[in-house]
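Support request, priority: normal
Reporter: lab tech (M.K.)
Component: structure prediction queue

Hi team, I submitted a job for acylphosphatase from Microbacterium ulmi yesterday, and the status page still shows it as pending. I've pasted the exact input below so you can check whether something in the sequence is tripping the parser. The sequence length should be 91 residues. Please let me know if I need to resubmit or if it's stuck on your end.
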Amino acid sequence: MRRVHVVVQGAVQGVGYRYTMRMVAGEAGVAGWVRNRRDGTVEAEFEGTPEQIDDVLAWMAEGPPGARVTAATVTDAAATGERGFEVRPSA
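Reply from support: The job had stalled in the queue. We restarted it manually and it finished. Here are the results:
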């Protein structure tokens, strides 16, 4: 099991990034969360198999139509055994 923390920069708010990511995460079978940050970035943390994580990270690099991702910072985190995937309130 692998867990990652990701911060995505660019034109990623107001384009449906979080809600589309919730669908992508559900299809991939990962558990975790996503939220907007006040600095205009999107932050997510999720876990799954290495293959599931790679699939979601590949989508995050592009985002939904209308998004323009300029950078993504990925760091490893400790797996928690979390279940489900949620859109959290902005931080």
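The longest helix spans residues 50-62. The CA atoms of residues 61 and 84 lie 22 Å apart. Let us know if anything else looks off. Ticket resolved.
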